[in-house]
Amino acid sequence: MTTPDAATPRPASSRARILLVARTEFAERGFDGVPLQAIAARAGVRHPTLLYHFESKELLYRAVIESVVGDWAAETERAISTGLLGFEQVAALVDAAFRFFDRHGDFVRIVRREAIEGGGRMEEQMAEFMRPFLEDAVRFLRKEMRAGRLRRHDPVELMQVCYGTVLTYFSDARFRANLVDEDPLSASALGRHKRALLKLLRTALEPELR
Amino acid sequence: MTTPDAATPRPASSRARILLVARTEFAERGFDGVPLQAIAARAGVRHPTLLYHFESKELLYRAVIESVVGDWAAETERAISTGLLGFEQVAALVDAAFRFFDRHGDFVRIVRREAIEGGGRMEEQMAEFMRPFLEDAVRFLRKEMRAGRLRRHDPVELMQVCYGTVLTYFSDARFRANLVDEDPLSASALGRHKRALLKLLRTALEPELR
DNA sequence: GTCTATACCGCGATAGAC
DNA sequence: GTCTATCGCGGTATAGAC
Known about the structure:
The structure is a homodimer of 210-residue chains. With 210 residues, the first copy, chain A, is mainly α.
């Protein structure tokens, strides 16, 4: 809901500060990986203070998820309702995802962690937010394919490919850094990957091509 | 290295049994999520026995990683050295990945977990095994593109797309299950996704198409 | 090699003063 | 709202008998 992880100037209220560092900390080390005390310390308070604001570690985590998912929901809402058609809309969405994920690196890793768990801590919460988004997207793709503005592909699987590719690029960026020598999160590397993905999608999706 | 996770008939030695359940257990709940006692119990021994074979939790985990990576290395070796050309080789590799990941669900989640961590527990170990694999693949793609048997795309980014898509399908299968009502790991769902990905790649990569 | 018993500590949570 | 102090559990690891 509130603010992301970049160089935000430290919120005034303890509560907000705690929530902020909790987000990055959980993203980094996972739920069990982070002692409450570490979060409290980095937020400049003692852990009882933290537990005063959020009654338990579990509830703190849920609060983090909520803010994270809220950010995402707000962003996609915008990216999806731009009245664009055909591949232009697809490109716009991919573009929005790249920009959002780039600014919210912790969002990505938290989502990923939850997605892996399966029986995780959010399950419904996440699915709740994602389902309508997916449905909208699928509806759109189907429509455009029928209209002949996109080549026919299975819309659900197409979304899965995009989801997998983009999310992975960010969630596994640190790993990729070990394989190619260039910071995957640098503007240039990021741009190259986005362009490559779009080109791939374009060649596969645009009907009247070449 | 040794054996996978499917319906293998329980190894005779305690050591092997421990290693086996450790693999699935770590995959499921992550390093901090699993008490040694749980692993020991499921392997039919007490935890001191476990610590007799593997000196610490950390070392047990490394042993698991090693076996996991070994399995993967052995498999790709084969899939990559089949002398196929152009899109046929690409398809063969994707196919091999699908089959391998399907049989080694725990492999996928462990790799993913490590990839997210970044400063994780394996870093070098993983990268060591992946780098030559990636380099071979890139070399191959470059060659085929030059020869005109594949359309030109950035080979590294292309690999990233495949890696992201396939790995995600399996690592996030449980999450996907909440969004579409069909078991993502069922033979039919799996086949559909593989075909969709291949079709996408084919339309983008095969030169003399349509 | 496998066990029982136990040491030891990190962590989440509570009590209660300021 | 924030603190100090402390409880109590769960978890890794060790000692030492069989």
